[in-house]
Amino acid sequence: MNKKWTVGSLIPGMETVREMTDHAVITDHVAPAAAAPEKTAVEIRQGTVTCSFPVQTGVLLLDAALERGCGIQYKCRKGTCGACTVDVVSGSEHLSARNRAEQKKLGAAAKRLACQAVMK
After folding, report:
1. Cα angle vertex 108, ends 52, 100, to 5°?
2. What is the per-residue burial (b if ≥16 Cβ within 10 Å, else e) of 78-98?
3. Could you tell me if 55 and 39 are in contact, meaning their C-beta atoms sit under 8 angstroms apart?
4. Per DSSP, what are the bridge partners of residue 53?
5. CB neighbours (10 Å) of residue 54?
6. What is the per-residue pLDDT across 27-76, written as a single tens digit (0 to 9) for each?
7. CA triplet 67, 69, 73: central angle to 5 degrees?
8. Exposed (0-12), middle (13-18) or buried (19+): which is 113, by Cβ within 10 Å?
9. Are 101 and 76 in contact (CB under 8 A)?
10. What global pTM score does this model have?
């Protein structure tokens, strides 16, 4: 009597299927892990700290970075101190246009205030 059973819910994407007979295990098949779908991401840098995270509509860059454990500096969260100034390495097309606080603080610099830039 042949039975098939699946083991392996401990490792996402990996399932072990064993074909059993009355006497012994005949073969082991390991299903390949499905490739994770590529998510659109924003990557920022502040000094020597670089952080990347998926685009989350309506979320501030600062909040996304802190949620991800990225140790960027910040202080006022109002756009006046400039402590959260970051370079956007990639994904700038997924950010809102500069608001008045960013324009006043940064001028024409190619940087963003993480406390003011919102992902769209």
Report:
1. 85
2. ebeebebbbebeebeebbeee
3. yes
4. 42
5. 15
6. 444 555 555 555 679 999 999 999 999 999 999 999 999 999 999 999 99
7. 95
8. buried
9. no
10. 0.67
Q: Tell me how far apart the terminal alpha carbons of the chain are, to the nearest angstrom.
A: 57
Dihedral pair phi/psi, residue 63, rounded to 5°: -65, -40
81: its two tokens: 């101190």
- Euclidean distance between CA atoms 60 and 47, whole angstroms: 19
- 67, containing H or E segment: helix 61-67
> For residue 65, what is the enclosing H or E element?
helix 61-67
Report CA Rg, the chain: 24
The mean pLDDT value of the chain amounts to: 81
